[in-house]
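Give me structure tokens for this 69-residue protein.
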Amino acid sequence: MRNIHYTLYREDSDYVAQCLDCDVSSFGSTESEALANLKEALELYFEDLPESAAIPKISEVTVGELAIA
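Here you go.
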């Protein structure tokens, strides 16, 4: 079993669940649907990788805002 880190946010009428450990994301019309879809996508992503495959260890998350021109 792997424990992953994710972020969940609202984008227009959908919720987006995005894994912070690897480049996998999914969405749904509710938070629980988005998370269930992310779990399924991650299971497929990790299906062919060995259990010992290295996953980056998240130690700190910062949420911010940048102004761009």
